[in-house]
Structure formats: C-alpha cells, structure tokens
Input
Amino acid sequence: MATFRHICDSVAVITLSNPPVNALSSALIQALQKALGEAIRDSAVEAIVICGDKGKFCAGADIREFNKPSQKRGPHLLLLTDLIESNKKPVVAAIEGVALGGGLELALGCHYRVAHVQARVGLPEVLLGILPAASGTQRLPRLIGIAAALTLITTGKYVPAREALKLGIVDKVVGENTVDEAIRLAKKVIGQPLGSRQLSTLPVQCPPNVEALLAEAMVKVKKQFRGAQSPQACIEAVRAAVHLPYTEGIKKEQELYQFLNATHEPRAQQYAFFAEREVAKWTLPSGASWKTVSPQPIHTAAVIGLGTMGRGIVTSLAKAKIPVVALEQDKRQLDIGSKAVMSLLDREILKMEQLGHTEATNSLGPVRFTLDYDELKDVDIVIEAVFENMALKKDIFRRLSVVCKPEAFLCTNTSGLNIDEIASVTNRPQMVIGTHFFSPAHIMKLLEVVRGCYTSSTTISTAMRLAKMLGKIGVLVGNCPSFVGNRLMRLYVEQAVFLVEEGSKPEEIDLALEDFGLAMGPFRMMDLAGLDIGWKARTEIGLTGPKLPIGTPARQRGSKRYSPLPDILCEQGRFGQKSGQGWYKYEKSGGRNAMPDPWLYNFLSEYRCIHNLKTRNITQEEVIERCLYILINQGFKVLEEGIASDPKDIDVIYNNGYGWPKHTGGPMYYASLVGLPVVLTKLEKYYEDNPDILDLKPSNFLKKLVASGTPPLKEWRSHLGSQSSKL
Ligand code: 3HC
Ligand code: NAI
Output
C-alpha cells in the first residue's frame, strides 16, 4: 500500500501503491499515515519524498469508497495533509502521471512539488458533484491566487506540468527521473526554514476586486452548469479562503462538503463516472466480450467524404497519430475539404503548443488527400461519411468491397440508416459496423458503435478499441432506425414542437429545459444543426413534400400526431442559424445570437387559427415532463427491444453526446431519481390527454419494473429477457 525505504541514509521515500491509479482508499491513507509516522520518528531520516507506484502519483480519493458510511472510511486525508505540512522535516512530492483531487491535495500539503513533464494535476471533485474536501479549496488559493484557483476548482480542469509550473502549483518540471530529482531537492533543503512552504500559514493574496471576481465566477458557473450545486459550493469555499483564517476556512469547506453529500448530485455524477468506464466492457448474449475477443490492429485508416463530419473524423484520427487517407468525390470538394481539415489540424497544433508541447506538429498522424479509390487498398479501416443517402452509401460500400484488402473493416457514420442493408451489398458483411460520431467529431467524446446482424465480435472489438484510441467513449448499441441517441432525441424534439402548437413559445421551452441543465434547448439546437437536414430526411421518406399522399391530414401521419411546423419554416427558407432565421432570428446568416422573432408569433397565431388549435397556459413542469419523460419512455423501449443492453449505456450516450446534465446522472438514472411509479403515472396521464401521441404510451418494460416493486437501476437489466437482445 504505502512503503517506506531509506535512500542515502537521510531521505525516506514513501511509495503510494494501490493499482491502477493509486487512489487513496482508507487502507492506503492508513498505510501512508503509518509510513509517515515511521519516517518522522526515525532520527536517521532528515527529509521525505512521497511518490506513486508505476509512474502515477495519485488519482485522488478512492471513489469506490464514497458510498461507505464515513465512520468506516478510516483516517481523513485532511488530517494527513496537516501532519505532513507541520512536520519539521521537509516533504517533497514527486509527481508522475497524475496528481488529481485528493492526490493534489496531498501534494499541496507537502513543502515542495517536483513534476514530470507529462504529468497532469487538477482538482476534478466538482465533476463528481463534490468539492475538494481535504484542504484543496483553502491551500490552492494561497498558492496560486484567487482567480487561477477559482478556474481550476470550478471547472475540474487537468493542467499539464508546464502550465502547473507557470501557475506556481509545482516548483520544478523534469523530463526524467522525477523521484531522483525530488530526492536531490529534498536533500538540498534539509535544515532550511519551512515557514514559507507551509501553505496553510500563508495569507491569501487578494486582488482589490476580489468580490467582483467571485461574483463573476458565480454567474459563469450558474450559466455553464445550470442546476448543479457543486460549482457554486466550490466558489463559496474559495470565498471562505478569502475572508476567514485557514482553520475556519477548513470548517466551511467541510460544511459545504456535507451539504453537497446530502444531495443526489454526488451519487449521480459518480454513477456517470463509472458508467463511462463500464460501457467499454461490452458483452454479447453469445458470451463473447471485451475480455475474450481481441481487436485487430489499426495502423492506417481512410475517411470518405470531407463534409461537416468527415473533416472532424480525419482530425480525430490524426490526433491519435493514425495515418489517414481522405477521399472526396471531386476536385472542388477535395479542395474545400482539405483546406478545412488543414485548418482544424493547425488549431490542434496551436492548442498543443499552448500546452507546452515542443514537437506538436510531429504528434499528429499524416493525412493524404485523394480522389483515387486505389489509395484505399492497404488501409486497415475505412469510415464512410458521405451524404445520408442509402443508394449512395451502398454504391460506396460496393466499391470498397472491391478495392479494400479483405482484412479491412468498413464503417459507416450514418446517423440512422440500416447497417444491415449497407452491409448486405459488401463481400464482408461481418466486417461492417456503424461508427456514429457526433459533431464536431474531433471534440465530442461519444462514439455510438452500431452492431448489425452480420457484424462479428472481432469487428465490434476493433471498433470499440478505435474509440479508445481516439480518446472517445464507445457505446455498443443495436441496429434500429436512428439507433439509440437520435431515436430518443427525435421524440423529445417532436414533443417540444407539439407544445409550441399547444401554446408555448420556443424560448420558453428552451429556457425550461436549459434550467433543468440541458446544454441547449431543442429549438436553439434545431436552429444550430439546420432545420433543412430533418426536412430533407422527412421529404425523402414521404412524411412531407411531393411523396406525401394527397389528402393526408396536415397534422396526422397514420394514426400519429404530426406537426408540419418545421416543414413550413423550411418552405419559407428558415433553416436556422445558417439562413439567419429559424425558430429564432439571428443578427445575420450564420449568426449565433438567437433572438425571439415577432414574425414567428404572428405566424403561430395564424397557424393555430387555421388548425383550430386552442392555446393554453403550459407550465415549466409540463414542458420538462412531456419532453423528458417521452425520451425516457423510449429509453425503456430501447432496453425492452435489446437495442441497448443496460440503462447506463443510454445515460452515457446522453451525457456525452446530447449535453444532458451529468449531475442528474443521465435520463435513465434521472427516471430512477424521480421514481419509476411517478414517471409511469405522468406518462399515463399525458397519454390519456394526447391519445394521438402514441409514444407517450408507457412502455411494457417500465410497467414491468413498477409492477416488480421498482428495483434499483443496477437490477433493471436482470428484468430483461436475454432473448430480446439485438447485440
Ligand atoms: N478512485 C477509484 N477508482 C478510480 C479513480 C479513483 N479516484 N480514478 C480512476 N479509477 C479507476 C477507474 O474506474 C478505472 O477502473 P476500471 O479499470 O476498473 O474500469 C481505472 O481506475 C482506470 O481509470 P481510467 O479508465 O479512467 O484510466 P485513464 O488512464 O483513462 O485515466 C485518470 C486515469 C486520469 C486517473 C482518470 O481515471 C480520472 O480522471 N480519474 C478520476 C480522478 C478524480 O476525479 N479524482 C478525484 C477523486 S475525489 C477526491 O479526491 C476527494 C478529495 O477531495 C478528498
Ligand atoms: P455533409 O453534407 O457535410 O458532407 C458530406 C460529404 O460527402 C461532402 O463533402 C460530399 O462532397 C461528400 N461526398 C458525397 N458523395 C461522395 C462520394 N461519392 N465520394 C466521396 N465523397 C462524397 O454531410 P455530414 O453532415 O458530414 O454527414 C455525413 C454523414 O454523417 C451522414 O451520413 C450524416 O447522416 C452523418 N452524421 C452527420 C452528423 C451531423 O451533425 N452533421 C452527425 C452524425 C452523423
């Protein structure tokens, strides 16, 4: 756990060891306390170095222990940091890999910090719904000032070693032998006064405008993390560092920690943290799994189509140092696409340089642009990202079958077309899979990996490995129209449009859902994505436009309610931001500043008159319930149909692809928080009021769970029949 050995008679080296990330479990804290006690008592020891085993200093408190009752958690890290700091022998932290959360707080208790150049430090507690509760909110502001500390503590950002040096968090950065360097430093400072190195004793350097700074930070976090309490508590704790002596500040830190812990947020965020890691551990009903099926190596890749998605996918591959061949349909598109890719790559290089990478250019994989399919003959994997058109995609996959080597995997970035239909035209349907990236593809963390009925487990394993190589979270789902994410999203957006027909304003709906915590309301989102995309898709399948049978009622398709509102906006040239008007108006075409549009109000009045729709007052509560519960209901249907194998898959998709607020855990976790019987009763009521909105009809699986006494979320899976799985 924590071992102690002597070096050159005078420096004791204590090594933290708790694989894989040396998290501070109660046992490790206890062992560290013991090792420190021995070193302090040993008269032969004049200085101490604390380091981490296997090149990782420490990733903070052991999150797996958070749900243990506090009295069973053993000695508190906070006391340990005070013990270290007050020790007369100098203590140096040798930081390799990471010093995060409690790991950084431990290092801040030390008198000196030496970091390896590739190490990262940070206080990510806010991302787990808590705050740094082992003096981080009190020591860090004393070390680096209020403004920088506020940024780190409220964003949870990880800071690379060179930036940490500039900020003053670490004293020295080395390229190698971090522990040796820490020992050298420890020896050098033996006998020197430690007063200025004891952070708890230092005054906080406050700028004259400190209150304005705190207020500004509060406004920022309220906007950025709507509905979440931990960022605000972090600011309150830093405010305490400004106004109170250290010991009082610590009391406030503890109080705020207890307050947060009594809310649902820490549990929700910690669930989201582990869910993101667990989705990588896929299993098929056949028994094949991430443990038993090896991925094939991917040394080279190709991307077809360099539009919005393709250019991001190329950039993502290049960032992962995978050489890419990028193919377009003609010279003009190739020129446009290649310029766009080069500009994205330049931006990546700039970002890396700002973070202190000296060889940023060399850290990207090479990209070759071409119009020639022959250049694809040796690549290990191809990702197709051309227009969303089945005939075109099939054409391309037929061609890939001929050109690519037999071992090459063929992936499609389709956002909802049938993977099996695409696979069926190839000579290797078992090697075809959906890799559904999210826009912008070089930034968004989510990759929906869509298994078709022919897809082999090796192909799944390789696609999931690709996600990891790209630094993304791959979630394995089954093949159905629009897969998981977009299938649920479509109903949510549709519900929002129905609410507008019934009397809401787009901005009221957006506000209600943004206050709930969603990154962007449905109308702002539609305007950003472009209303024409959905319009084209609906026209193609005959929901609107020339293929719509004559005599179809305007607000009905089959037995379902339909709103033609988005189609009419498109017919009027209102495509959203790109055309300067959509659900909102913008300062210009391509503008981003959404403003309520009086034109729309008049238009809506006329529309409601034509369709004989009576408006009514719609509460925020109804907006949230109808939009979110219909999405959640579809989540239960997706589970029932075996399209997703576990509720956490849906939650990870929503948290990482659709801006769902992590402090509520994700849609399915949120349903469990609200209570399944409540969700069911509300759905029943809304369905009764709106019998033509068929998707409000509660799913059988939801009803089954309620009838079984509402088991906790982790047991839902066991209530699903295994034969239903589409994985
Ligand atoms: N506690 C327990 N387990 C942890 C952990 C932690 N703090 N951090 C990571 N792990 C586990 C992961 O769950 C995963 O387990 P698995 O292999 O069984 O799935 C394993 O360690 C490896 O983690 P990753 O898959 O994330 O590996 P990476 O190499 O991609 O990333 C990391 C490593 C950068 C350390 C990343 O795991 C991370 O960011 N961890 C969270 C760190 C954090 O939030 N620390 C703050 C804790 S709260 C705290 O310290 C409170 C204090 O103020 C008192
Ligand atoms: P886009 O219209 O921006 O780009 C498509 C590109 O494909 C164009 O550059 C076009 O020249 C090229 N192309 C067309 N035919 C080609 C051919 N025969 N050979 C080579 N290149 C060809 O489209 P976008 O938005 O990038 O979408 C691509 C795919 O990704 C679609 O299937 C879409 O549904 C999917 N998708 C889109 C998302 C988005 O937010 N835009 C999100 C996730 C998936």
Observations:
- The chain is about 45% helix and 10% strand.
- The first helix runs from residue 26 to 41.
- The chain has a mean pLDDT of 95.
- Residues 504-610 form a domain with the N-(1-d-carboxylethyl)-l-norvaline Dehydrogenase; domain 2 fold (CATH 1.10.1040.10).
